[in-house]
Amino acid sequence: MIDGDKLKQRRRPDYVYHLSYRTRWSDSDQYAHVNNSVYYHLFDSIVNTYLITHCGLSPIHSPRIGLVISSWSRFFSPVSFPAVLNLGLRVAKLGNSSVAYEVAVFEEGQDVPSAVGGYTHVFVDSKSRKSTPMGTRIREGLAKLSIGHADVVDAKL
């Protein structure tokens, strides 16, 4: 994992795909900020939105699915309700059957991330759960999330 100082230096242009998210009252914890566990929901939402809309993955019908084998997060500043967040996604490492994602959470109007985290998916056969190559369409879609790729995509959640 990259050290916290380097992660905190990330900016919006470091991420290829972006998704907006409006916080909900129920995202807040007893300290009036977005609960840490909600960030993992955000990570999962942006990754799966991208996989479904840009890689042709159907969680119900696809012959292969991605299973999370590891996850991590670094928190830099709290976010509180009501806030509009911008999630940024990029691929840190792309293998034959696995991919490591990095997600940044930016509060609207801020260029410094409130949190940066990610996880690793290993693609498996949807029935046997045995590791399998991710497939051409998924791989090509994920390759577009690599740093330096020209296409920037924005979406709403």
TrEMBL record:
**Which keywords does this chain's UniProt record carry?**
Hydrolase
Claim: rRNA-binding is one of the keywords in the record? no
Q: What CDD domains does the annotation carry?
A: 4HBT
A GO MF annotation of the entry reads: fatty acyl-CoA hydrolase activity
Cited InterPro entries: 4-hydroxybenzoyl-CoA_TE (IPR050563), HotDog_dom_sf (IPR029069)
PANTHER family per the UniProt record, alphabetical: 4-HYDROXYBENZOYL-COA THIOESTERASE FAMILY MEMBER (PTHR31793), NOVEL THIOESTERASE SUPERFAMILY DOMAIN AND SAPOSIN A-TYPE DOMAIN CONTAINING PROTEIN (0610012H03RIK) (PTHR31793:SF27)
Q: Which family does it belong to?
A: Belongs to the 4-hydroxybenzoyl-CoA thioesterase family.
Report what the protein is called. Thioesterase
